[in-house]
Amino acid sequence: MKPKQRIKPLDALILSAILSCALPVTPAAFAAAGKAQAQAQKISSKLVTTVSSSGSDHLTEDEEVNIRVYKVANRGVVNISTASSAEEALVNPNNVGRDSFGSGSIINTDGYILTNYHVVDGFDHVRVTLYDGSVVHGAVVGVDPQTDLAIVKIDPPKGVKLTIIALGDSEKMEVGRKVLAIGNPFGLDRTLTDGIVSSVGRTMNTASGRAIKGIIQTDAAINPGNSGGPLLDSQGRMIGINTAIFSKAGQSAGIGFAIPINIAKNIIPQLITHHKVSRPEIGLDVVLLQGLRVKNVTKGSPADAAGIQGPKIVQYNLGNGFILNKAEWGDTITEIDGQKVTTIDGFFSYIESKKPDQTVTLTILRAGKTLKIPVKLTLSTAN
């Protein structure tokens, strides 16, 4: 007697399918199936499956700029992590549990990286992740809380060639110009966003309490982790350092701020060489009109000592107990050392390019008269 053959699961499925096909189909069911198939074909014929274009992979001009800038600058952007480690715990016990991340830009072949002070605040050592994923030790060699800038030094791995991000000219930035940001928002490395310059000449207070003038406002998406990364022009040149967002939720709301690169240009050499900044002070608060109109003169400052005047209230006695209070404008600065003043950023960048105890000559308009007033700069006492 032959043993019975067992039907395998797959054989059972095939047999079931054959038997189901052998079942009789009623005319009504056949008609319904045909109608459904006709409707499906009718719908399918209306679907658009191709798009006419001049090329199979045509890019818009804006897309081409985005791609080109990313290829030029991407490898020059790094991820900076200050996550606490065993080594850091031994060096700085107070930093244990303080985990944060940010971005930075490689600015020369010696391994110097420009970032924000608040990204590395309180740390002497950080972890730096390069474009290829390699992680290297970074030493914080210089910080400037007043401008929220810092320099980190790395020794790249053997065989790794560093990509340098070129520095642009922030004074050439105008409202409406295209800008791009590359960084590590929420730790998502190498993220590109783009937008425009929404405004220039903003004033922003840093954590140290100092007001940074000439700040660039952009609608390019800036999120936590972008801090310290570059804001680039359409040629891939860094024109700003992304530093803050205006958002109650702590994420991009279409209002981001960047420190002008022209301010950083005067800070970088001092941070690398002296590890800190010795800056001059003039003691003026100004607004941009036809020149720089003086809003306030700090008491005891070089400007105050030189006789620069801010706005004031003049009282006129009209008699019979009536007194008229009239506001009079302060001085308007039109030139500094013979150079025309056209932007707030340019004015204060020029001041910071000088050394304490040097003298600058301001050309001012006062009550319709042009005056030239020398102002001796002093060492800034701000932290």
Give structural notes.
- With 383 residues, the chain is an alpha+beta fold.
- The chain folds into three domains: 72-154, Thrombin, subunit H (Beta Barrel); 170-273, Beta Barrel (Thrombin, subunit H), CATH 2.40.10.10; 280-379, Pdz3 Domain (Roll), CATH 2.30.42.10.
- It contains eight helices and 22 strands.
- The protein has helices at residues 9-21, 27-46, 61-73, 86-91, 117-120, 261-273, 302-306, 344-352; strands at residues 77-81, 101-106, 112-116, 125-129, 135-144, 149-154, 178-183, 191-205, 211-218, 230-232, 238-245, 256-260, 280-281, 284-289, 291-297, 312-319, 322-328, 332-336, 339-340, 359-366, 369-376, 378-379.
- The chain has a six-stranded antiparallel β-barrel.
- The longest helix is centred in the N-terminal third of the chain and has 20 residues, at 27-46.
- The termini are far apart.
Structure characteristics:
single chain, 383 residues, alpha+beta, Thrombin, subunit H, 22 strands
Largest sheet: 6 strands, antiparallel, barrel
Which bin fits the share of residues in helices?
Answer: 10-25%
Number of helices: 8
* Class based on secondary structure composition and strand pairing: alpha+beta
CATH-defined fold name of the largest domain? Thrombin, subunit H
What portion of residues belong to β-strands?
35-45%
| Overall number of strands | 22
Indicate the overall shape. extended
Rg, rounded, reads 32 Å
Q: CATH superfamily of the largest domain, please? A: Trypsin-like serine proteases
Order of strands across the main sheet: 1-2-3-6-5-4
CATH class of the largest domain: Mainly Beta
Which segments are poorly predicted (pLDDT under 50) over 5 or more consecutive residues?
6-23, 85-91
Number of domains: 3
